[in-house]
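Renewal narrative, Specific Aim 1. Our central claim is that a sequence can be written position by position from structural information alone. The example that follows is taken directly from our test logs and has not been curated for this report. It begins with the structure tokens describing the chain, in the order in which they were read.
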């Protein structure tokens, strides 16, 4: 049995697919991560290298297509149509030669080539599996051809926003009962949805810090693409203030270690990416990490996690870390804390001095640190949609179910 795992974006799919591939290999499934060039993002290619796949013992295959053309003139639209047609033929020939029994994707909605893979699977009678552990609210960002010639072709004109809506033949692995209920409420047949938990959480979290590091307090600061929400000026000013604060704290507390975790999409903004490197890279106090696959390892070692509203805060709360959410503007739309209860306010920081005060207390006072970590854990248990699903065996469950379904086929 051969299965291709096809990520739309590596930073969202890599850990999920890697965990399932590891378990699939135990079930004697030939599982491969398939990269489609040139549609892999340039900054992802620099991070998710061949060396990383080899290091993680993750088999990989590559396919090279012709790059799309964004039509500006009428004749360019004709070229775009021709390129898409040629690429579809290349994909069909590739799938016939490789003969996979199934493909695994994170979403059936798009972009164009994810939909094209599904059409080929339907034609060749191959299985389609969807691992749904990232919420997708709408389909506005997915690529659709503007050419009138293609408006009657589903692969290019499809605009539905419901997971599982592209084809009725796919099997959906949902991360939680709540996510399953939401899919069913939108009209997807319940027989197609299987709740397995979140494969990203299948890795057993164990504190592996060396004994001589136990007396250190590790602050993890996670950046986000706030320049897209507020402005570049906001990012520049905030991070300069944060650096001054971190330096001040380090001078007064010699047991600090500060890790700056860059959001994977910072690479799409070269000026901001360079700013972070120059700002935090000129001091041995800061350790800069831009590798998304190290998230679990980073969280294990952290004591205090600071960010705006990244999912890393929720993951940290599950591991009973102190979490502090930056919200300098009172915009609940961009906040983890929408109830504004006293519990949430304790984890919220609305100015730099408040952040410095709460971090100082967490560094110096172990009782306050224990209180805040318990607060975070209770909060995430109350709101997390996956709380009732044991995800420790999610990847294993997916691998076993895939094997059984492929054998039946």
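The sequence written for that structure reads:
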């Amino acid at each position: 049995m051969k299965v291709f795992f096809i990520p739309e974006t590596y930073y969202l799919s890599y850990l999920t697919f890697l965990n399932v591939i590891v378990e699939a290999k135990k079930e004697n499934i030939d599982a491969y991560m398939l990269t489609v060039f040139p549609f892999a993002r340039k900054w992802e290619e620099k991070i998710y290298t061949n060396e990383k796949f080899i290091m993680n013992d993750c088999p990989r295959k590559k396919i090279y297509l012709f790059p799309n053309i964004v039509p500006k003139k009428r004749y360019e639209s004709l070229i775009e149509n021709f390129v898409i047609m040629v690429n579809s033929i290349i994909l069909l020939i590739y799938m016939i030669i490789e003969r996979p029994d199934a493909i695994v994707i994170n979403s059936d909605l798009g972009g164009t080539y994810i939909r094209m893979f599904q059409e080929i699977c339907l034609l060749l009678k191959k299985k389609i599996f969807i691992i749904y552990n990232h919420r997708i609210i709408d389909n506005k960002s997915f690529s659709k051809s503007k050419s009138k010639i293609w408006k009657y072709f589903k692969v290019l004109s499809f605009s539905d926003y419901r997971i599982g809506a592209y084809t009725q033949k796919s099997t959906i692995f949902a991360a939680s009962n709540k996510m399953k209920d939401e899919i069913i409420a939108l009209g997807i047949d319940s027989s197609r949805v299987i709740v397995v938990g979140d494969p990203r959480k299948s890795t057993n979290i164990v504190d592996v810090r060396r004994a001589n590091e136990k007396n250190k307090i590790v602050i993890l600061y996670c950046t986000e693409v706030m320049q897209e929400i507020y402005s570049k000026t906001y990012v520049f000013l905030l991070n300069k203030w944060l650096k001054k604060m971190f330096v001040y704290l380090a001078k007064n507390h010699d047991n600090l270690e500060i890790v700056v975790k860059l959001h994977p999409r910072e690479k799409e903004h070269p000026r901001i990416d360079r700013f972070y490197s120059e700002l935090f890279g000129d001091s041995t106090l800061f350790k800069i990490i831009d590798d998304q696959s190290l998230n679990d390892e980073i969280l294990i070692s952290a004591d205090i996690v600071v960010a705006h509203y990244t999912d890393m805060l929720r993951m940290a709360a599950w591991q009973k870390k102190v979490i502090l959410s930056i919200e300098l503007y009172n915009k609940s739309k961009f906040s983890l804390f929408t109830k504004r209860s006293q519990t949430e306010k304790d984890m919220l920081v609305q100015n730099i001095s408040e952040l410095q005060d709460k971090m100082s207390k967490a560094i110096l006072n172990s009782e306050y640190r224990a209180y805040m970590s318990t607060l975070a854990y209770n909060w995430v248990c109350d709101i997390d949609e996956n709380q009732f699903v044991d995800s420790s065996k999610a990847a294993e469950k997916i691998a076993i179910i895939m094997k059984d379904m492929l054998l039946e086929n």
